[in-house]
Write a structure and sequence with these properties.
The chain is α/β, with parallel strands linked by helices. It has 3 domains: 2-108 and 238-305, FAD/NAD(P)-binding domain (3-Layer(bba) Sandwich); 122-235, FAD/NAD(P)-binding domain; 325-414, FAD/NAD-linked reductase, C-terminal dimerisation domain (Enolase-like, domain 1). It contains 10 helices and 26 strands. It has helices spanning 10-22, 44-49, 65-68, 128-137, 151-162, 183-195, 291-305, 376-383, 391-397, 402-414; strands at residues 2-6, 27-32, 71-75, 78-82, 87-90, 95-97, 100-103, 107-109, 122-124, 143-147, 166-170, 199-201, 206-212, 215-220, 225-228, 230-233, 237-239, 255-256, 268-270, 275-278, 285-286, 318-323, 326-332, 341-347, 352-359, 362-369. Strands 3-2-1-7-19 form a 5-stranded parallel beta sheet. Helix 8 (376-383) packs across helix 10 (402-414). The mean pLDDT is 95.
Length: 415
């Protein structure tokens, strides 16, 4: 059996290793675009701070790991898939045949259509090459403007602050981390980072970037001008699916897959950030680009590609963020559900926040700031789909009792 995997990020690597486990005699090829060993993009901020070297970002540290597991690494960019001949075409016109194909091509960073966005000194922070270029400009005392304050943006912000730069952040939403935090929670994070010396502009957008000698000047939509030595674009990501044009693979925001991670095209599977898979609570298709989901999907896809039988339980939001020392989390449908109930507790002075969202007597989503003790119980309640019974009303009255509720329901389930 010949397996080809497009994408050598976490999903691709996990899939390749599981394929080797479940199909010991298979031919496995892992394709990556960059001239790097497979690495984690989530490790790039640690590279920027100097906490780790290039090697520290690698997904597998042993240099002979892939050879020992009989996994062939191939550098190249896939430009086309030809399902009828079961062939993958690369940018050098070479071709690879497959019996089973896994698309784990991940996402690419979005560059907003702003005049000057391609000027020297304007970077995304998506690859190791990006990080090396940023490190040259983001030196202690330098002025850096970051576009975007989402989850990835806040991780980059942490690294930039650790480098000692003077940082300004522009976010088009009404709060920081708008796709992870409620309005109150995102605003609390904004106040925290401002207290730490970061200048934050919300409900704002960069409309133009111009060169000013060796510096750059960004103009915001309210006319504000910000001078910077470097500009980092962290304005979001989109699934990397352009090469699938004409392949017959069904696309929405990402690749449509079933619970077995199969696409509608014979012998083609998909896993990771590129997929639009069934949601854990709703069963409806969701684009949920987080690493735990990617790893689960990769394992399921590999088992099924090797002839086994496995099902993905559904995409679930699991986010943990450290914003300059303030820990926040969100799990599941943290924004709530139509017809559901919720409760919020907010202590602005102590930077503590808690939100619980229910559908019937099941906790379907939670958001927290400043809660580090037992916060895993929130994930357990959400992911376990525990029916809370009378505990729901107790939590609506006092959401801080979530750990006690979790223990009570876990004991009840085990009895």
């Amino acid at each position: 059996m010949k397996h080809v995997i497009i994408g050598n990020g976490p999903a691709g690597v996990v899939a390749a290793e599981n394929l080797r486990r479940f199909d010991p005699q298979a031919d496995i090829t892992l394709i990556g675009e960059e001239p790097e060993a497979p690495y984690s993009r989530m490790a790039i901020p640690y590279f920027l701070t100097g906490s780790i070297a290039d090697h520290g970002t690698h997904l597998r540290k042993a240099g002979d790991h892939y050879a020992r597991h009989g996994i062939q690494l191939r550098q190249g960019r896939v430009v086309r898939i030809e399902p009828e001949s079961q062939t993958v075409v690369l940018d050098d016109d070479s071709e690879l045949g497959y019996d089973r194909l896994l698309i784990a091509s991940g996402c690419y960073p979005v560059r907003p259509p702003v005049p000057g966005i391609d000027l020297p000194g304007v970077h995304t922070c998506w690859t190791l090459a990006d990080a090396r270029a940023i490190a040259e400009r983001a030196r202690p005392g330098s002025r850096v403007l970051q576009i975007g304050a989402g989850f990835i943006g806040c991780i980059i912000m942490e690294a930039l602050c650790a480098r000692g730069v003077k940082l300004s952040v522009v976010e088009k939403g009404d709060r920081m981390v708008p796709r992870m935090m409620t309005e109150k929670a995102g605003t609390m994070i904004r106040h925290w980072v401002e207290k730490k010396g970061v200048e934050v502009h919300v409900n704002a957008a960069v409309t133009a970037i111009a060169a000013a000698g060796e510096a750059l000047v960004a103009t915001l939509d309210d006319g504000t001008r910000i001078e910077a030595d470097a500009i980092i674009c962290a304005a979001g990501v989109k699934p990397n699916v352009a090469f699938l044009a004409g392949s017959g693979v069904t696309l929405g925001q990402g690749i449509h897959v079933d619970e077995h991670m199969r696409t509608e095209v014979r012998n083609i599977y998909a896993a990771g950030d590129v997929t639009e898979a069934s949601g854990f609570h709703t069963g409806e298709r969701e684009l949920n680009a987080i690493q735990p989901n990617a790893a689960d999907q990769a394992r399921v896809a590999a088992i099924n590609m090797a002839g086994g039988e496995a099902r993905f339980q559904g995409a679930l939001a699991i986010n943990v963020l450290d914003a300059l020392g303030l820990i926040s989390t969100s799990f599941g449908h943290w924004w709530g559900a139509a017809g559901g109930e919720g409760v919020e507790r907010c202590d602005d002075e102590r930077y503590r926040y808690l939100s619980l969202q229910f559908k019937d007597d099941v906790l379907i989503g939670a958001t927290s700031i400043g809660w580090t003790d037992h916060v895993g119980a929130l994930r357990g309640l959400v992911q376990g789909r525990m029916r809370l019974g009378p505990w729901k009303e107790k939590l609506l009255q006092d959401p801080t009792q979530f750990m006690t509720a979790y223990i009570a329901q876990a004991h009840k389930a085990a009895a």
